[in-house]
Structure prediction request, 216 residues.
Amino acid sequence: MKRERVIINGPYSSCARYVFDCKHVVLIGGGIGITPYASILSSLMAQFRASRIVCKNCEHINYYSRGLIENRRLKKVDFIWVNRDQKNFEWFLNLLRQFEQEQEYYLASNSDEKRFLDIHLYFTEIKHDENIGNAPLNVATKVWAEITRTDIFTSLQSKTHIGRPKWEEIFDQLVAGENASTANDVNVFFCGPSTMARAIQNHCAEYRFRFYEEKF
Prediction:
C-alpha cells in the first residue's frame, strides 16, 4: 500500500491570549477589527462586577478594600478604535458605556486607585468644510460635553476625535504621566487593515513596544 504524506498546520492560538500576562496593554482596532477585543473587555468588566459589594440597606456600591487589580499583573488598558463613524457598532459602544460606568463606580469607592481603562475613539469620515475645518463641529461638541458630560457622537464620557490618529502623540502618552510605571512593559495588540498594521508596527519598533497582530 502506498503511503500518503499528510501535512497538518495549526491550530494557532490567538495572540490575545497573552493580554492578561502584560502590565500595560494597548488594544487597537480598525473598523470591524474591534470584534476580537469585545470578549477581552467583557471579561475585564466581569472581574470588576465580581468584586462589587452592594449594601442591602442603602444600595451603596463598594468594592473589595484591597482593590480589584492589586493581585493581577495587568494594570492598564488603552483601547483605541479607528473607524469611519459609529454606525453599525452600537452594540460595541454599549459595552464601552457599561465599562465606563463600572470604572467610575470603582474609582469613587477606591480613591487611591488609578484609571484602569482609557478609551480613544477616532472617526475618520465625518465631513467638514475645507475652508473652516472642524471649528464649528469642535465648538458644538465642546458645548454638548460641558452640558451633558458625554460625547455628542457616542454618549460616552470619552471624547471622540475627528480624523486619523497621530500615532507619535498617542505613543508618547503611553509612557508619560501615570503610565510611566508600566513604560517598560507596553504591549500593542492590533486587528485591522494591513496598511495600518505596518504603520503601527513601525512605531512600536521605535518605542520598543511589543507588537502583536490579530488576524480577523
